[in-house]
Design a protein that fits this description.
The complex is a heterotrimer of chains A (457), B (469) and C (284). Chain A is an alpha/beta fold. In chain A, the strands form 3 sheets. Chain A has a 5-stranded mixed beta sheet with strand order 2-1-3-11-6. In chain A, strand 1, helix 2 and strand 2 form a beta-alpha-beta unit. Chain B is built from 20 helices and 2 strands. The longest helix of chain B has 34 residues. The model of chain B has no long low-confidence stretch (mean pLDDT 84). A two-stranded antiparallel ribbon of chain C has the order 1-2. In chain C, a hairpin with a 2-residue loop joins strand 1 and strand 2. Chain C starts with 9 loop residues before the first helix and ends in a 5-residue tail after the last helix. Helices cover 63% and strands 1% of the residues of chain C. Chain C is globular. The N terminus and C terminus of chain C are likely disordered. Chain C has 13 helices and 2 strands; from the N terminus they run ααααααααααααββα. The chains are: A alpha/beta (457), B mainly alpha (469), C mainly alpha (284). At the A-C interface, helix 1, helix 2, strand 2, helix 3 and helix 12 of A face helix 3, helix 5, helix 9, strand 1 and strand 2 of C.
Chain lengths: 457, 469, 284
């Protein structure tokens, strides 16, 4: 027994020593080492290599994240976070509230990465109350990508410019009902995320989540309910977009892809509401080559076409030991070289609008057709950002929005009921947050000029 | 050195390595989290931490008035719920300890169940209907025991249940309109957690059944015979498999071939083949397996629904297969099935196998001499002998179940759709790392701790009773 | 049970084969998915129509990824080794320290023993999520972040292991060590020569459980480690589930490679383990 333990101990010691000695340690020289907390996908390698080549003396490495902010938070609150923080929009106000993100305003202008250097549509998602906290790695606006082969197969004409939801329903019905030459049946739309669809409709109706002072939720407004009702009708009244079951495989899953996206990839669905990032998938599907067309999302009656703009954007850890080097990375993101790389990869729109002036400039190997890329440029002009409230974290808002859109999807609540309940719940949470957090009470007094009492209106 | 001091010194020398790690990486964090539960500690530095007393716990468990309600109704309602809980517990206890009058008590419970069903139909309330059905079924079953019909101390718990059930249903309306829960999510997620534990008894029964099937070698005869039978199965796998592949469809062919392959392995390696196979899911558990099941449950293209659709087609049933993880109704059953699949051949089966081979042979032989059937042997000898093992497995299952569901919610469903797969442990996670409210999260943890502790303690008490039976 | 003769055991074999089929199907699906091209993964057909071997060379960095036309640059071999190192060392430390502590709880008499043990038990009932930040903070103070030893030491001490082994040791007859004491053996000799050999089933069970738990753990290593040279397999595999599309076929290929050592381990230990467990059994 003793021997067994002795041998086991020796083996683990030898393995440990072998592992330790074979580690490739960074050389001890004047190089500054900084880390970038992001998802470790294969494209990051090329991006960090380009950065390291552009800025000799700085060595950037990726600190892998799993698309959740837990690791980031645990590391940042214990002062061991990455220098550069890559984040989705709905985590920004939490991270700013937690004091993790650095206010970039003093540096942005002189270093050339202030929010005027990118699309005006996403300005609001980079700033909180006039202070800039991040700069985009890429910018996503939704448009409709369609598969021309399926339209031709059914003898349906492509979506007309300036189309509205009536046209959309008509075209979708034709695609579903008209027999095809090949004899195959197709779905009209691959619905890959119910919340993304709903938010695009919210942009289309011009509605928003919070009142401008952030104290009240306005999701119970007529426009917001109209948006969710429209989504609901498309599923259950017109039967033109797929039901939650069909869209499930990815709606609740990390990792963008799979499920509904794959039906579109495989030519089972004719249309998909998606950003330009979709085309990173195209090389895997030779059948799609030359078959893709795109157009801005349909508009609702009396409203112009509009969709949501989101960006994966980078901020800087307020406690970073190498702030200057990290700031250079944001400068790099604003550079045309980086943007050209994004154009080539097809991972959404590049942050630098000067690189994306025309469809021609955006055309790449996967989709050489300039007209295809034009739609995304058109879309980004009218795109909007939904607002957030300083009194409640966006992560909570997203989580609840998902829950209530799911409930509508599953026909547990009607659209109006869902949004009214959600509004009550969000208002209640704002109230609780104010009760629990004295700093929010101070904010309330400063911004409204009224004295805070638990019974504020 | 005196003897006592020496004892402590020796004990410390054994304990120390573990104790240091335990203090640093378990006890210290536990104490910190306990302190946190009484503060508003947040990960946001802008929020000054201060002592909150019991406020967090009130926010988790309590209710608040939304209209001018009658406090007396609320008090009555709480009292009735308490009566229901103590009634249920003491009814169980009375049954175990064989108090007088339990048969009459069971009859009262059956009646309560009927009343609840009647009320449930009237108010179209699913919850009432289900609990009514449960009470009626249990009550009726227990009424058929071999005991005298008379009232006694054992009837009192059932009267408590009757009183509690009546009281809660009567006051519910007025309480609901005047009060709301401070944190309705807590109760919803507690319900989810308990619901997901339905799989535990099925898993235990399955493990036991497999252990009984596996515990003796299959008498496959001499080696020559084994080789012949094994190869026969291989040939069958090849022939029938390819026939089904060509004439029906490839998937069926694969399944047929696989079936005969597994039995061929059974002939060749006997029970060892099956033990290895059944333990495989436990070995591969973890994130990868969850990704795998997520694909299997894909409502359109996943193999499970493809199989079900083919089956429905064959039977001529016009029904859609369930939408599994996408549907509020089916997400929980989907996770339960996955849990049973993963755990059925794991550690529990091995523990049962160990228990079975520890069983004194003489007992079984004696029973056989008396001409006892298979079932009666199981009921009167095997099951009581295995009681300690069952007890251990149940306790570990309940502790694991109440704290469980975190990884699968994080990897497979994000707690959705519509929060239907969020368990308490995942709720703690979202509160801590999404809403950054560590104080509140710690308070939920300690509430959960209290529940786990109570469940374990109860089990311990009842289980000890069972064991000495 | 009754001795059966002739072919009446066939129904048992049939039942076992049905269960075996159910258990093996998902694995068959996994293996076949690892040979599918990307566009076939979601096909209902289990057997790939155009099977390709290239998924394995892709994750092993031998051939380029079809999406980006670049090599993925995964350090697969290194991650394999790391997984084994971390699991092996954690298991070694945990079994050794748990056994020693269990001996102190089950076999030695000292003041406060039961109180300390109760503390051990109670901590098992607290959800681990909430302990993460304090735990992490301690590792920061110790400068153990982003190191092998930080990861190994922080998961090498468990109340569960101590509990399990204590139960096993309690079932060993005390008469044996009393006899040994009379023969003049000291506690260490009793521990190694009398109690440990008789607790073998428990030790094996704990070894397997700890090894599996450690080999499969994902969340804690993810939070603790930065450097991709240190990753265990599950964290490294994150690279396959990115915004470039979840590449299920690659994930499945990596998973197949990941569980191969576990299956070998199990086949080797299987007989040993089941037979070993029979000697002891668990007392509630």
């Amino acid at each position: 027994m003793k021997q067994a333990f002795l041998i086991a101990g020796l083996i683990s010691l030898i393995m440990y020593i072998a592992a330790q000695t074979s580690l490739i340690k960074p050389k001890e020289d004047s190089t500054i080492h900084i880390t970038w907390g992001t998802d470790p996908n294969p494209a990051r390698t090329a991006q960090t290599t380009l950065f390291n080549k552009t800025y000799p003396g700085i060595a950037l490495t990726v600190d892998p994240q799993d698309g959740d902010i837990t690791k980031l938070l645990v590391r940042c609150v214990t002062d061991s976070g990455p220098d550069i923080i890559d984040l989705q929009q709905n985590t920004m106000n939490s991270l700013v509230g937690a004091g993790i993100l650095l206010d970039l305003t003093p540096y942005a202008k002189q270093m050339g990465f202030d929010s005027s250097q990118t699309y005006s549509a996403i300005k609001d998602s980079l700033e909180i109350e006039g202070k800039q906290y991040r700069f985009p790695c890429n910018v996503t606006v939704d448009a409709v990508i369609y598969n021309k082969k399926i339209f031709d197969d059914h003898g349906v004409s492509y979506p007309p410019p300036d189309w509205n939801y009536d046209d959309f329903v008509r075209i979708s019905k034709e695609l579903i009902e008209k027999p095809s030459k090949s004899g195959e049946k197709h779905l009209a739309v691959a619905n890959w995320s119910n919340v993304a669809f709903f938010k695009d409709l919210m942009a289309g109706t011009g509605s928003n989540i919070f009142s401008s002072d952030g104290l009240h939720c306005i999701l119970n407004s007529r426009e917001a309910i109209q948006a969710l009702q429209q989504y609901y009708d498309l599923i259950y009244k017109y039967h033109v977009i797929s039901t939650p079951a069909d869209s499930s495989a990815i709606s609740s899953q990390g990792g963008w892809g799979s499920g509904a996206l794959n039906w579109f990839n495989e030519g089972k669905a004719a249309m998909i509401f998606v950003g330009r990032w979709y085309i990173v998938q195209v090389p895997n599907y030779p059948n799609l080559k030359g078959a893709l067309g795109s157009i801005v999302v349909p508009r609702l009656k009396d409203h112009p076409s509009s969709s949501i703009a989101v960006s994966r954007a980078a901020g800087i850890n307020a406690k970073s030991k190498h702030r200057d080097a990290a700031l250079k990375f944001l400068q790099f993101l604003a550079s045309p070289e980086y943007s050209r790389m994004i154009v080539e990869d097809g991972d959404s729109l590049p942050p630098n609008p000067e690189v994306a002036v025309s469809g021609n400039a955006l055309a790449n190997e996967s989709v050489p057709d300039p007209a295809f890329h034009d739609s995304f440029l058109k879309a980004v002009k009218n795109a909007r950002v939904l607002n957030s409230s300083p009194y409640i974290d966006d992560i909570t808002v997203s989580r609840w929005m998902q829950e209530f859109v799911d409930k509508t999807d599953n026909q547990i609540l009607t659209p109006a009921q869902a949004l009214q309940t959600l509004t009550v719940q969000l208002d209640k949470q704002i109230r609780i947050n104010l009760e629990r957090q004295p700093n929010l009470q101070k904010r309330y007094e400063e911004s409204t000029g009224k004295h805070y009492s638990p019974n504020w209106k | 050195m005196s003897g006592k001091k020496k004892d402590v010194f020796t004990a410390l020398s054994f304990l120390l390595p573990n104790l240091i790690g335990f203090l640093a990486f378990t006890l210290l964090p536990v104490i910190l989290s306990f302190c946190m539960a009484f503060t508003n500690w947040s990960l946001k530095p802008a929020i000054a931490s201060h002592y909150l007393g019991l406020q967090n716990f009130i926010d988790i468990l309590g209710a608040r008035s939304i209209q001018h309600g009658q406090p007396i109704y609320l008090a009555l309602y709480c009292f009735c719920i308490l009566a229901l809980l103590t009634g249920t517990m003491s009814a169980l206890w009375a049954q175990m300890a064989d108090w007088k009058g339990t048969r009459a008590g069971a009859f009262v419970i059956a009646l309560t169940g009927l009343a609840l069903i009647w009320h449930g139909i009237h108010t179209a309330s699913q919850g009432l209907l289900l609990s009514g059905l449960l009470a009626a079924a249990v009550g009726t079953a227990a009424s058929f025991q071999d005991k005298p019909w008379r009232f006694g101390t054992g009837t009192i718990p059932s009267l408590l249940i009757l009183f509690g059930a009546m009281g809660t249903t009567l006051t519910q309306q007025s309480v609901n309109s005047a009060y709301e829960l401070r944190d309705p999510y807590f109760y919803q997620y507690l319900y989810n957690t308990v619901f997901l534990m339905i799989g535990i008894p099925f898993g235990i029964a399955g493990s036991l059944a497999l252990a009984i099937l596996l515990h003796e070698q299959l008498p496959t005869g001499p080696p020559r015979m084994r080789i012949i039978l094994g190869s026969l199965n291989l040939i069958l796998a090849l022939l029938l498999g390819s026939a089904a592949w060509i004439f029906i469809n490839p998937n069926l062919g694969l399944i047929t071939a696989l079936f005969f392959l597994v039995s061929a392995a059974g002939f060749a390696f006997n029970v060892v083949a099956f033990r290895t196979l059944f333990y495989l899911p436990t070995f591969t558990a973890g994130v990868a397996l969850m990704i795998l099941w997520h694909e299997l449950y894909n409502p359109k293209t996943g193999p499970i629904n493809t199989g079900l659709a083919a089956l429905f087609h064959l039977l001529g049933v016009h029904a859609h297969p369930p939408e599994w993880l996408a549907s509020v109704t089916w997400a929980k059953p989907a996770l339960i099935v996955m849990g049973i699949w993963t755990g059925i051949g794991g550690m529990n089966m091995l523990l049962y196998l160990a228990g079975l081979s520890n069983m004194p042979k003489e007992l079984l032989e004696a029973a056989e001499m008396d001409g006892a059937g298979e079932w009666s042997k199981f009921r009167h000898i095997v099951w009581p002998q295995l009681a300690p093992t069952t007890f251990f497995i149940t306790i570990m299952g309940i502790i694991g179940g109440l704290q469980g569901g975190f990884e699968q919610a994080r990897v497979m469903t994000n707690g959705g759709p519509a929060g239907s797969t969020t368990t308490l442990s995942y709720y703690i996670y979202t509160k801590a790392f999404q809403d950054l409210d560590m104080g509140y999260a710690a308070a939920i943890s300690w509430t959960l701790f209290a529940i786990v502790f109570a469940a374990t303690a109860l089990n311990w008490k009842f289980g000890k009773g069972l064991e000495s039976d | 049970m009754k001795k059966r003769s002739g072919t009446s055991y066939l129904w048992r074999l049939f039942l076992l084969s049905v269960v075996g089929l159910t258990i093996s199907l998902p694995f068959v699906w996994m293996v076949s998915a690892s040979f599918k091209p990307h566009n076939e993964v979601e096909h209902p057909q289990i057997v790939p129509e155009h099977p390709r071997l290239s998924n394995y060379p892709i994750i092993l960095n031998i051939s380029p990824d079809p999406v980006t036309h670049k090599k993925l640059d995964l350090k697969f071999g290194r991650w394999y080794f790391n997984s084994l190192l971390i699991a092996f060392s954690t298991t070694f430390l945990q079994v050794l320290t748990s056994a020693m502590a269990a001996f102190a709880f089950a076999r030695l008499k000292w003041k406060g023993r039961d109180t300390v043990f109760l503390c051990y038990l109670a901590t098992m009932m607290i959800p681990g999520v909430v302990l993460m930040i304090p735990n992490f903070q301690i590792l920061v103070w110790l400068h153990f972040l982003n190191t092998y030893h930080g990861l190994i030491i922080s998961s090498a001490f468990s109340a569960f292991g101590t509990f399990l082994l204590r139960q096993f040791m309690l079932s060993v007859s005390p008469a044996l060590d009393e006899a040994a004491t009379i023969d003049g053996a000291n506690p260490w000799q009793i521990f190694w020569e009398v109690v440990m050999p008789l607790t073998r089933p428990g030790l094996i069970a704990l070894t397997i459980l700890t090894f599996l738990g450690s080999y499969q753990s994902f969340f804690w290593p993810l939070i603790l480690l930065n450097d991709d040279q240190l990753f265990p397999m599950p964290v490294g595999m994150l690279a396959l589930n990115s915004s470039y599309g979840k590449q299920t076929e690659l994930i499945m290929a990596a998973t197949v490679l990941n569980i191969v050592p576990l299956i070998i381990l199990f086949v080797v230990f299987q007989k040993f383990m089941v037979n070993g467990l029979q000697l002891g059994g668990v007392k509630g």
